[in-house]
Structures are given as C-alpha cells and as structure tokens.
C-alpha cells in the first residue's frame, strides 16, 4: 500500500505547483527584471531619512534606471524601479520622484504612486511599476528580488 500512496502524493504535489506561483514574475514586455541585492544602512546620512515615515530615497546606480525606496512606517517599506514600466528604457523613461508620485519625463508624462506602484489613472491597460522586495532588519533595509 505504501508503494502506491507515496508516488500518488508526490504526483499530486507536482501537479499543484505552477510557474505563476512566483510573485516576482514580470509580465511586462518593456522591462527586464535586473538582479538587485542592496543593503541600505540607516546609520548612513544618505539613508537616515528612511527611518521616518513618508520619506523616500532614490538609488541611481541600481536596477534599470534606478530604484526608489519609500518608508511607509518604521517597519514597512516599498521599493520600485524608476524606469517607466510603459516604455522601453530610453533617455526620457527615467522617472522623476516627488514623493509620493513618480513622473515619466517622456511626452505622455505617466504618473505612478511610489507606495503602491500603481499608475495614477484608472487605465487598467497601464503596467504598474516593477516592484522589488524591501525588508527592514535592524538598522538595515534589504532591497532584493
């Protein structure tokens, strides 16, 4: 009986798995997902503002065009790519961040909420910002994918 049950449960377990289970899947045809693994020390002056809610920091040398990290509260953070997700990367697609809005510098001036990553219009055909994981561990914020 064990010889039948073990393969049966293994088979069911494999069928239950799906490639869509990965929350970091990027279905956006404009952006690739770059490898990101940052440690931001809140003890450094350039990241100290993230200790306080409603502040953001832009890191320009990571991601595609840069990453914005936003402090929702003392323990919860959001992190997004600042290349407009509705354009292929170009000279104008790097967004300008004026907390809590990121604005594309291309002619359409797409606007996104950096807390949720959503486009500010009700247009469901627009891709949201590319999200990165952001976790606070002590006085360090880890940003990764």
What's the short story on this structure?
This protein is mainly beta and 145 residues long.
Distance between the termini: 43 Å
- The fraction of residues in strands falls at 25-35%
Overall mean confidence score, pLDDT: 88
Q: In DSSP terms, counting alpha (H) and pi (I) runs of 4 or more, how many helices?
A: 1
Q: Give the SSE order as H and E letters.
A: HEEEEEEEEE
Question: Helical residue percent?
Answer: 10-25%
Radius of gyration: 19 Å
Which regions contain 5 or more consecutive residues with pLDDT less than 50? 11-24
Spatial strand arrangement across the major sheet: 1-9-8-4-3-2
CATH architecture: 3-layer Sandwich
- The backbone outline, from C-alpha atoms, is globular
Structural class: mainly beta
CATH topology: Rieske Iron-sulfur Protein
DSSP, total strands: 9
Largest sheet: 6 strands, antiparallel
CATH class: Mainly Beta
The tally of domains stands at 1
CATH superfamily: Rieske [2Fe-2S] iron-sulphur domain
